[in-house]
Amino acid sequence: MTSPLGRLRPEHPPVRRVDDLAAAFGLRVDGPAEGVTATGVTMSSADVEPGDLFVAVPGLRVHGARFAAEAVARGAVAVLTDTEGAELVPAGVPVLLTDDPRAVAGPVAAWVLDDPASRLVTVGVTGTNGKTTTTYFVDAALRARHAVTAVLGTVELRIGDDAVESPRTTVEAPVLQSLLALAHERGATALTTEVSSHALALGRVGGVQFDVVGFTNLQRDHLDFHGDMEGYFRDKSRLFAPGQARRGVVVIDDEWGRRLAQESPIPVETVSTRVGAPQAAQADWAVVEADVGLDGVGSRFVLRGPDGARHEAHSPLPGLVNVSNAALAVVVAHAAGVPVDAAAEAVGRAHAIPGRMERVVERGDGWPLCLVDYAHTPDALELALEAVRPITPGRLVLVYGSDGDRDRGKRPIMGQVGARLADVLVVTDENPRSEDPASIRAAILEGVRDVRPDLADVHEATSRAQAIREALRLAGPDDTVIVTGKGHEPTQEIAGVFHRYNDRDVFLAARAERREQHA
Ligand SMILES: CC(=O)N[C@H]1[C@@H](OP(=O)(O)OP(=O)(O)OC[C@H]2O[C@@H](n3ccc(=O)[nH]c3=O)[C@H](O)[C@@H]2O)O[C@H](CO)[C@@H](O)[C@@H]1O[C@H](C)C(=O)N[C@@H](C)C(=O)N[C@H](CCC(=O)O)C(=O)O
Ligand SMILES: Nc1ncnc2c1ncn2[C@@H]1O[C@H](COP(=O)(O)OP(=O)(O)OP(=O)(O)O)[C@@H](O)[C@H]1O
Asked: Which residues carry this modification: N6-carboxylysine (predicted)?
């Protein structure tokens, strides 16, 4: 990370009258709103800046209006909430009333900041896996035509060369609007953001009409939140709607992509990324040749366009999944105005992405190849291990766990995948959150036992750092140690406490210690 983005607010926001805002959105006003002006919007009392409109939403745990007094004390000039929330707002504070404050938070923030999204080329990428990688590839391609760009997602919030850690995959709607305004103020002309299914369900991209949206794939994940795959698909599909996006690009390798392309009410281009797949002939764009790099560095592929022209392209990251991400990124960037060959060239040169098949220590000097990857679903894990096998002359050593307070059903499946595709397993903790870490490990080990009943070469470690050290102790110079699940994450969440922790740092510390011992 370089210098912080500060308050993530534009320095020179417009000044908007609260009564004009109420009129524009047909909101009832309670209390003295006349002459009151707002310069920003927030949904979190802790983030209020003087001049903000505080949007108090009924949360899953608590009503935001409980924090209205705190927000006003910090300088909020008015509160936008529902009738339940209005009861909790201190007397004398102007209240704007709506049935669904979460739904209007984005459009209202866009109005207050004078629709910043309309001043930039905007791209949103959704899907279960590959969002981060694809947004970085898209950003690389957009930089072929835009001197300053912004990219927002799980890893960081970046405008030009300035980046801060990201609180989540897709920030809340008022934060997104502030970032769009700040990016515009800093000279950015294009912005790419990951759009999670939670974001779509909770209105976090409200108030943005994306120029182009992309869909990677749909795989089992987050069913705790969306209920079932149908609900998950419905939430993802919300990105492909008039008013939310102008046009879309959909990878049709899986049945969900094919269905999205068929049902989408906005115009979409389709991309098939598996050579020889039956859907390739119908796809607008198709990967027709792929030389999936066996050197672990990247792959070369040929993308056939709608006019039949063949475009040489490269993925700078290993494995078939990254051919898919790179192909999608090229087509998305093309839809956003970058000539296809310039987009392909720029994607091929994109930099490494933190925690995505990141080569932390190269093989050599007696050390195994050490990788960190963010795969945390059964499908992603399978693909990651398949990508690493060809670059591993010896044994594949996997260190992994599974998140607490998230989809429990995937744990034994992760166990089975690991046992099937890796040689040595060290099962450990990811982010146990409020759950008992031992019971999460036990659920993974249950799946491991299905495949490997004798638990040969299966180890268990209660601390993630110890697990990595154990893997390094077990691994020889021809082996590969891959740690999956946390990727770039700078913290580990245990029993409500976020501890500073990063897989990469553990590898590097272990190597530094070994060097010192041998010095
Ligand atoms: C399920 C979910 O997404 N929940 C989000 C939701 O929480 P909530 O409804 O429980 O909110 P709450 O705690 O009841 O608070 C209600 C309101 O009071 C406000 N409040 C609360 C406390 C306070 O002191 N002051 C204050 O103003 C809150 O800002 C909120 O607006 O609204 C909160 C505030 O906006 C979010 O922080 C919270 O995200 C939580 C932290 C979360 O973990 N979300 C994850 C699941 C998520 O969104 N993940 C996706 C990525 C998924 C993926 O693809 O991997 C993401 O986009 O990051
Ligand atoms: N197109 C893909 N299909 C399947 N798996 C993929 C794909 N791209 C990447 N992966 C795997 O998924 C992991 C996560 O990749 P990435 O961070 O790009 O996805 P993401 O959608 O941003 O994930 P998240 O929403 O959890 O942040 C990677 O580490 C890789 O193992």
From this structure: 236
